Predict the structure.
Amino acid sequence: MPGRAQVMYGIIAFYFPIKLPAETRSTVLIMKLETMSDFFTARLEGYDEHMLEEVKGCREGYGKLAEALPENTGSLLDLGCGTGLELEEIFRRFPDLSVTGIDMTASMLEKLRQKALSPRLKLICGDYFSVNFGREAFDAAVSFQSLHHFKPEAKTELYRRIWEALRHGGVYLECDYMAASAEEEAFYFRENDRLRAEQGIPEGVFCHFDTPCTPEHQRRMLLKAGFSSCEILWKQENTTLLRAVKE
Protein backbone atom coordinates (compact mmCIF):
# COMPACT_ATOMS: atom_id res chain seq x y z
CA MET A 1 0.00 0.00 0.00
CA PRO A 2 1.31 3.49 -0.78
CA GLY A 3 2.76 5.28 2.21
CA ARG A 4 3.51 2.14 4.20
CA ALA A 5 7.08 1.17 5.06
CA GLN A 6 8.50 -1.88 3.33
CA VAL A 7 9.87 -4.37 5.85
CA MET A 8 12.85 -6.52 4.92
CA TYR A 9 13.87 -9.39 7.16
CA GLY A 10 17.57 -10.08 7.68
CA ILE A 11 17.49 -13.31 9.68
CA ILE A 12 20.71 -14.49 7.99
CA ALA A 13 22.21 -11.20 9.16
CA PHE A 14 23.85 -10.10 5.93
CA TYR A 15 25.70 -13.27 5.05
CA PHE A 16 25.50 -11.71 1.61
CA PRO A 17 24.21 -8.26 0.54
CA ILE A 18 20.47 -7.68 0.45
CA LYS A 19 19.28 -6.39 -2.92
CA LEU A 20 17.48 -3.17 -2.16
CA PRO A 21 14.44 -1.86 -4.03
CA ALA A 22 14.93 1.24 -6.16
CA GLU A 23 13.22 3.32 -3.46
CA THR A 24 14.87 2.84 -0.06
CA ARG A 25 13.51 5.73 1.99
CA SER A 26 10.47 3.72 3.19
CA THR A 27 12.40 0.47 3.72
CA VAL A 28 13.25 -0.90 7.16
CA LEU A 29 15.21 -4.01 8.12
CA ILE A 30 14.28 -6.37 10.95
CA MET A 31 17.20 -8.42 12.27
CA LYS A 32 19.14 -9.16 15.41
CA LEU A 33 22.71 -7.93 15.24
CA GLU A 34 25.53 -10.30 16.19
CA THR A 35 29.08 -9.49 17.21
CA MET A 36 31.64 -10.05 14.48
CA SER A 37 33.22 -13.02 16.24
CA ASP A 38 29.88 -14.71 16.96
CA PHE A 39 28.65 -14.12 13.43
CA PHE A 40 31.63 -15.67 11.67
CA THR A 41 32.11 -18.48 14.19
CA ALA A 42 28.49 -19.56 13.64
CA ARG A 43 29.06 -19.62 9.87
CA LEU A 44 32.57 -21.05 9.75
CA GLU A 45 31.43 -24.34 8.26
CA GLY A 46 30.87 -23.63 4.60
CA TYR A 47 32.31 -20.11 4.74
CA ASP A 48 34.98 -20.68 2.07
CA GLU A 49 32.49 -22.32 -0.29
CA HIS A 50 30.02 -19.49 0.24
CA MET A 51 32.57 -16.80 -0.59
CA LEU A 52 33.87 -18.64 -3.65
CA GLU A 53 30.55 -19.78 -5.08
CA GLU A 54 27.84 -17.36 -3.92
CA VAL A 55 29.32 -13.87 -3.50
CA LYS A 56 29.65 -12.46 -6.99
CA GLY A 57 33.12 -11.24 -7.81
CA CYS A 58 34.92 -12.92 -4.95
CA ARG A 59 36.36 -15.95 -6.76
CA GLU A 60 37.78 -13.68 -9.46
CA GLY A 61 38.65 -10.96 -6.95
CA TYR A 62 41.04 -13.15 -4.96
CA GLY A 63 43.14 -13.65 -8.06
CA LYS A 64 42.89 -10.01 -9.15
CA LEU A 65 44.13 -8.89 -5.73
CA ALA A 66 47.18 -11.16 -5.93
CA GLU A 67 47.92 -10.03 -9.48
CA ALA A 68 47.84 -6.36 -8.43
CA LEU A 69 50.64 -6.70 -5.87
CA PRO A 70 53.96 -5.26 -7.13
CA GLU A 71 56.60 -7.77 -8.22
CA ASN A 72 59.03 -6.58 -5.54
CA THR A 73 56.64 -7.13 -2.62
CA GLY A 74 58.51 -8.80 0.23
CA SER A 75 56.30 -8.04 3.23
CA LEU A 76 52.53 -7.77 3.46
CA LEU A 77 49.89 -6.70 6.00
CA ASP A 78 46.51 -8.42 5.60
CA LEU A 79 43.61 -6.78 7.43
CA GLY A 80 40.71 -9.14 8.13
CA CYS A 81 42.50 -12.20 6.76
CA GLY A 82 39.79 -14.61 7.93
CA THR A 83 40.34 -18.12 6.61
CA GLY A 84 42.96 -16.88 4.15
CA LEU A 85 41.23 -17.22 0.79
CA GLU A 86 43.11 -14.21 -0.60
CA LEU A 87 46.35 -15.52 0.92
CA GLU A 88 46.02 -18.80 -0.97
CA GLU A 89 46.26 -16.81 -4.20
CA ILE A 90 48.94 -14.47 -2.88
CA PHE A 91 51.24 -17.27 -1.70
CA ARG A 92 50.91 -18.99 -5.08
CA ARG A 93 52.49 -15.91 -6.63
CA PHE A 94 54.83 -15.04 -3.74
CA PRO A 95 55.78 -18.29 -1.97
CA ASP A 96 58.50 -16.58 0.11
CA LEU A 97 56.40 -13.58 1.13
CA SER A 98 56.38 -12.50 4.78
CA VAL A 99 52.78 -11.83 5.86
CA THR A 100 51.16 -10.48 9.01
CA GLY A 101 47.45 -11.29 9.10
CA ILE A 102 44.98 -9.74 11.54
CA ASP A 103 41.45 -10.91 12.27
CA MET A 104 39.15 -10.63 15.28
CA THR A 105 37.63 -14.13 14.97
CA ALA A 106 39.81 -16.82 16.56
CA SER A 107 37.96 -19.71 14.89
CA MET A 108 38.66 -18.32 11.42
CA LEU A 109 42.34 -17.89 12.22
CA GLU A 110 42.48 -21.49 13.44
CA LYS A 111 41.03 -22.67 10.15
CA LEU A 112 43.68 -20.58 8.37
CA ARG A 113 46.43 -22.16 10.49
CA GLN A 114 45.20 -25.62 9.52
CA LYS A 115 45.77 -24.76 5.86
CA ALA A 116 49.52 -24.37 6.59
CA LEU A 117 49.98 -21.93 3.72
CA SER A 118 53.43 -20.69 4.73
CA PRO A 119 55.90 -20.73 7.64
CA ARG A 120 56.29 -16.98 7.03
CA LEU A 121 52.69 -16.21 8.01
CA LYS A 122 52.22 -14.46 11.36
CA LEU A 123 48.65 -14.29 12.67
CA ILE A 124 47.24 -11.85 15.22
CA CYS A 125 43.79 -12.24 16.80
CA GLY A 126 42.52 -8.73 17.44
CA ASP A 127 40.81 -5.79 15.78
CA TYR A 128 42.89 -3.81 13.32
CA PHE A 129 41.71 -0.54 14.83
CA SER A 130 43.84 -1.18 17.92
CA VAL A 131 46.69 -3.45 16.75
CA ASN A 132 49.98 -1.58 16.26
CA PHE A 133 51.14 -1.94 12.64
CA GLY A 134 54.47 -0.16 13.14
CA ARG A 135 55.92 2.52 10.84
CA GLU A 136 57.23 1.81 7.34
CA ALA A 137 57.16 -1.91 8.16
CA PHE A 138 55.46 -3.30 5.01
CA ASP A 139 55.80 -3.12 1.25
CA ALA A 140 52.06 -3.59 0.75
CA ALA A 141 48.79 -4.00 2.61
CA VAL A 142 45.54 -5.66 1.57
CA SER A 143 41.99 -6.08 2.77
CA PHE A 144 39.39 -8.35 1.18
CA GLN A 145 35.66 -8.08 1.98
CA SER A 146 36.34 -6.82 5.50
CA LEU A 147 36.03 -3.04 5.82
CA HIS A 148 32.42 -2.60 4.70
CA HIS A 149 31.23 -2.85 8.31
CA PHE A 150 32.65 0.39 9.71
CA LYS A 151 32.00 4.12 9.75
CA PRO A 152 33.91 6.48 7.45
CA GLU A 153 35.58 8.28 10.37
CA ALA A 154 37.00 5.02 11.73
CA LYS A 155 38.05 3.86 8.28
CA THR A 156 39.81 7.14 7.48
CA GLU A 157 41.87 6.88 10.66
CA LEU A 158 42.62 3.23 9.85
CA TYR A 159 43.76 4.24 6.37
CA ARG A 160 46.09 6.84 7.92
CA ARG A 161 47.65 4.11 10.06
CA ILE A 162 48.00 1.84 7.03
CA TRP A 163 49.71 4.71 5.19
CA GLU A 164 52.14 5.08 8.10
CA ALA A 165 52.83 1.32 8.11
CA LEU A 166 53.77 1.26 4.42
CA ARG A 167 57.22 2.03 3.06
CA HIS A 168 57.51 4.76 0.45
CA GLY A 169 56.24 3.45 -2.86
CA GLY A 170 54.04 0.95 -1.04
CA VAL A 171 50.51 0.08 -2.13
CA TYR A 172 47.27 -0.64 -0.34
CA LEU A 173 44.77 -2.88 -2.15
CA GLU A 174 41.18 -3.08 -0.99
CA CYS A 175 38.74 -5.47 -2.65
CA ASP A 176 35.37 -5.02 -1.03
CA TYR A 177 31.61 -4.79 -1.32
CA MET A 178 30.90 -1.17 -2.27
CA ALA A 179 27.62 0.70 -2.56
CA ALA A 180 26.18 1.47 -5.98
CA SER A 181 25.00 4.95 -4.99
CA ALA A 182 25.17 7.55 -2.25
CA GLU A 183 21.51 6.81 -1.45
CA GLU A 184 22.26 3.12 -0.90
CA GLU A 185 25.24 4.02 1.31
CA ALA A 186 23.12 6.39 3.40
CA PHE A 187 20.39 3.76 3.80
CA TYR A 188 22.73 1.16 5.29
CA PHE A 189 24.31 3.60 7.73
CA ARG A 190 20.89 4.87 8.78
CA GLU A 191 19.59 1.35 9.39
CA ASN A 192 22.74 0.38 11.26
CA ASP A 193 22.35 3.33 13.62
CA ARG A 194 18.67 2.53 14.16
CA LEU A 195 19.20 -1.17 14.87
CA ARG A 196 22.09 -0.52 17.26
CA ALA A 197 20.01 2.05 19.16
CA GLU A 198 16.95 -0.23 19.35
CA GLN A 199 19.06 -3.18 20.56
CA GLY A 200 21.08 -1.12 23.04
CA ILE A 201 24.46 -1.87 21.47
CA PRO A 202 27.10 0.58 22.74
CA GLU A 203 29.82 2.24 20.68
CA GLY A 204 32.95 0.17 20.41
CA VAL A 205 31.15 -3.18 20.07
CA PHE A 206 31.84 -4.57 16.59
CA CYS A 207 28.66 -6.03 15.10
CA HIS A 208 28.18 -7.61 11.69
CA PHE A 209 26.12 -5.28 9.54
CA ASP A 210 27.00 -4.22 6.02
CA THR A 211 27.61 -0.48 5.67
CA PRO A 212 29.30 -0.22 2.25
CA CYS A 213 30.53 3.10 0.93
CA THR A 214 30.63 4.11 -2.71
CA PRO A 215 33.97 3.77 -4.54
CA GLU A 216 34.21 7.55 -4.78
CA HIS A 217 33.69 7.94 -1.03
CA GLN A 218 36.35 5.28 -0.48
CA ARG A 219 38.72 7.20 -2.75
CA ARG A 220 38.18 10.45 -0.84
CA MET A 221 38.88 8.73 2.48
CA LEU A 222 42.13 7.20 1.21
CA LEU A 223 43.38 10.48 -0.23
CA LYS A 224 42.48 12.28 3.00
CA ALA A 225 44.49 9.67 4.92
CA GLY A 226 47.63 10.60 2.97
CA PHE A 227 47.75 8.36 -0.10
CA SER A 228 48.91 10.21 -3.20
CA SER A 229 46.61 8.39 -5.61
CA CYS A 230 43.70 5.96 -5.63
CA GLU A 231 42.10 4.20 -8.59
CA ILE A 232 39.63 1.45 -9.40
CA LEU A 233 41.49 -1.52 -10.88
CA TRP A 234 38.60 -3.93 -11.37
CA LYS A 235 34.90 -4.34 -10.62
CA GLN A 236 32.34 -7.14 -10.84
CA GLU A 237 28.83 -6.53 -9.54
CA ASN A 238 29.37 -4.72 -6.19
CA THR A 239 32.83 -6.24 -5.61
CA THR A 240 35.36 -3.50 -6.37
CA LEU A 241 39.17 -3.51 -6.24
CA LEU A 242 40.92 -0.24 -5.33
CA ARG A 243 44.63 0.55 -5.36
CA ALA A 244 46.05 3.40 -3.27
CA VAL A 245 49.73 4.39 -3.49
CA LYS A 246 52.03 5.99 -0.93
CA GLU A 247 54.69 8.09 -2.65
In short: The domain at 34-245 is CATH 3.40.50.150 (Rossmann fold).
